[in-house]
Amino acid sequence: MNPEPSVAVKRFPVERFLAVLAAAVLLTGTVGYSFRVADRLHEDHLALLETVLEIRLEATIANLFLEEMLIGNRSGEAKDVMGHLDRAAWYAGAMLAGGINPDGRMIPPADPVIRPDIEYLAVRLDHFRGLARERFASFARNGRDGSEDQAYHAALAQFAGASDRFQNKLRHEFQKRQSLFRFFQVFLGVLLGASAAFCGWFLYRFERQRDAYLAGLKARLCRIKGLRGILPICSSCKRIRDTDGRWKPVENYIRHHSEADFSHSLCPACTQKLYPGFR
Which end of the chain lies in a sparser environment, N or C, as judged by fewer CB atoms within 10 Å? Predict the structure, then answer.
């Protein structure tokens, strides 16, 4: 019995597939990381904006309390005013160095662009606190406003201006970086889609090639199997009967049922028989 023909089957290109898969995973991770950074940026700037508004609110309440005490519409002590300013100062310090209060933990921003503005706001607030304390002390001693009134209002205006500029800068920085992150997210999303499309096209192309190869292999195996078993051959003319009942020469039958071909020649015995004098 003849052995089964050995056929080399095309190997699946694992290296290329893994390279495409690794690129897709990398792009997916990059997109996820960009979304995380964008969310963190939003959280940081939102927290800073809320803190600045809290500082502005505490300073405004302190100013209103002090003005009402000075005109006699409110009775109270210095701690009623300074308590609000102290809380505002704590928030300003927490923006620079971090801190914990009942509302949660504050983490100082790592962005070096906005840190000088926080320091300037803290300086303006500290100057305003000092003048508020002196103004209240002068009123307690003399029963009326002293010379600190003009400097106090100037310090309040400087603090309010610093607060407004810082808020505007935070909004501007947030919008600028948000636009940048959106651009990267869209860009990475397009790359991810292109990688997925390429991966799908690559697998589809490989499947098509494999199907074509297997179809050709099957056809060759069918032709090879046609030469197996018992072949009805004429004892006289040596023709072979095909499956359709026709008798074909051996050369034609083998050529049709296999990939073999023939080149005619004479063996030594036939040469001596047909051409005795030929050597």
Answer: N
